[in-house]
């Protein structure tokens, strides 16, 4: 690839981006422009390393990477599983840890145990469908929602929900609990397949540096 080509990163907005940039700083990659909280810029550049960064909503990150608008993306595993894009998942960054779970009131346990038909509300219909149909072999109706998923079983829209659980405090406050774990989640690095071939040396070196830094953190 030409020497002056920028390696472009799509970072999930919010805590994920902050933690990613903090990790990158540990391996000597900085982007001072991104520290300006008042900036209206959309693209941030590290000229020395020939790297560009931009922020995107989590669900959009895999799309930018699949279509080559970004070479590399940093996004939660939940988004990768839900979006099902043609990208390479190359590294577990170890932060942003949580779980995808089936949650509901205690009375829903029997429906799960007997694999009875029920309604499942989720922001993640693909993950929910894969879990119930391919892993539990249970027929359910998936209802897609965008916010306050915990409300669904309380008002009778669904028997259970599939959602991300961090502390579980919101569930407990609303009379719900974790009934089954679908999968553990954390932040991941994903790469465009063409970029992996064309920029293999740079990307492989970056992954190696990150792995080395992450191994330090795990031994502390």
* Strand ordering within the main sheet: 2-3-1-4-11-5
Number of domains: 2
Name of the CATH first level of the largest domain: Alpha Beta
Number of helices: 9
GO molecular function, one term: ATP binding
Domain ATP phosphoribosyltransferase catalytic: 59-211
Organism: Eubacterium plexicaudatum ASF492
GO cellular component, one term: cytoplasm
Show the helix and strand layout.
Layout: E1 7-12, H1 15-26, E2 44-46, E3 51-56, H2 61-66, E4 72-76, H3 77-83, E5 88-92, E6 98-104, H4 109-113, E7 118-122, H5 125-135, E8 140-144, H6 151-155, E9 160-165, H7 169-173, E10 177-185, E11 187-191, H8 193-198, H9 200-219
Parallel strand pairs: 1-3, 1-4, 7-8, 7-9
Antiparallel strand pairs: 2-3, 4-11, 5-11, 6-9, 6-10
Overview of this structure, please?
The chain is α/β, with parallel strands linked by helices. The chain is 35% helix and 28% strand. The protein has 9 helices and 11 strands.
List keywords for this structure.
alpha/beta; D-Maltodextrin-Binding Protein, domain 2; 2 domains; 6-stranded mixed sheet; 9 helices; ATP_PRibTrfase_HisG_short; EC 2.4.2.17; glycosyltransferase; transferase
Describe the structure concisely for a colleague.
This protein is of the alpha/beta class.
């Amino acid at each position: 690839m030409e020497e002056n080509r920028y390696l472009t990163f799509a970072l999930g907005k919010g805590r994920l981006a902050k933690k990613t940039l903090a990790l990158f700083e540990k391996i000597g990659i900085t982007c001072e422009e991104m520290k300006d909280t008042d900036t209206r810029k959309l693209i941030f550049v590290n000229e020395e390393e020939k790297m560009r960064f931009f922020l995107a909503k989590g669900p959009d990150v895999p799309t930018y990477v699949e279509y080559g608008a970004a070479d590399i993306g940093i996004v939660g595993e939940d988004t990768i599983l839900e979006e099902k894009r043609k990208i390479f998942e190359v590294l577990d960054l170890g932060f942003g840890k949580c779980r995808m779970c089936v949650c509901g009131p205690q009375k829903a346990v029997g429906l799960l145990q007997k694999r009875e038909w029920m309604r499942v509300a989720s922001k993640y219909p693909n993950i929910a469908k894969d879990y119930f149909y391919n892993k539990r072999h249970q027929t359910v109706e998936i209802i897609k929602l965008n916010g306050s998923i915990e409300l669904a079983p309380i008002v009778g829209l669904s028997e259970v929900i599939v959602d991300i659980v961090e502390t579980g405090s919101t569930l407990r406050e609303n009379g719900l609990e974790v009934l089954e774990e679908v999968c553990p989640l954390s932040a991941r690095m994903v790469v465009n397949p063409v970029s992996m071939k064309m920029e293999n040396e740079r990307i492989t070196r970056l992954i190696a540096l990150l792995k080395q830094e992450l191994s330090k953190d795990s031994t502390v």
